[in-house]
Every structure is written in structure tokens, then in C-alpha cells.
Amino acid sequence: SDDRNNGYINSIVDSFKKNSEAKSEDLNVNELRKRYPYINFGENGRACYDPTGGVIMADKALKCVQDLSVRFGVKIRDGDRVVSIIHDKQKVEVHTDSGRRYLAKSCIVCTGPWASQLLSKLGF
Fold it and tell me: How far apart are CA 32 and CA 43, in angstroms?
């Protein structure tokens, strides 16, 4: 952050301080410029470095979850837009744009950015 009093950064630093086993570094603007000279941190830059942190590649993580799910019997139906879901305590019925109807004990619908459109039809 380029604001020394950034509440978000402060809460992260405070969280690390409360956990004696957590390793982190509270970096000021001079330390940031030394480590990352290619980034402009402004005049009051501050960051919290977590050496145990990492990056999750979303596409690879999703592929892994899908592959595991298929191994355990899940059927993945991709690219078929859901237009309605009817459910009760025994079953879920999913209707799609292509006219397909899926019937199951349970289902997971991954709508991405279209969640609000589908959920509004379900009363949410």
C-alpha cells in the first residue's frame, strides 16, 4: 500500500503479530524499494511479506478438483447454460438451455459471473 495507515495492511500485520509461530516481515518503503526496485510504492509504501505464502494457479487447481471428482463418480457437464433448478429434500432437477434435464440427489452448479442471474430465479 502507498498509505502507511492502510487499515487492511495494518490488520494483516497485527494478525501475524498475534500468532507467535507465523513468520512475516513488515516492510517500509525503503525496504520495499531495495527488494522490488521495479515497483513504485509511493512515498509511504508499506507491505507485509509472508514467506510461507504462495500462488494458486486457478486453472490448474480447478482441473485437479475436476479430475479427482470424476474419479469419485462425479459427472461434469460443461458449457450447458442452466435456466432453472427445481429442488426438494429428495432430489434436484436442473434444466438447461439445450433442453436437457438432469436429475440427481445433489448437484454443484458453477455459474461464474452469471451467479446472480441464476440465483435470482431461485429466489436468492
Answer: 11
CB 74 within 8 A of CB 87: no
Query: Within a 10 A sphere around the Cβ of 87, how many other Cβ atoms?
Result: 13
pLDDT tens-digit series, residues 4-41: 677 888 888 888 888 888 888 889 899 999 999 999 88
Nearest-angstrom CA–CA distance, 124 and 115: 10
Q: Which residue has the cell 430465479?
A: 121
The model's pTM is: 0.49
| Contact yes or no for 47/31 (Cβ under 8 A) | no
CA angle 105, 107, 108 (to 5 degrees): 165
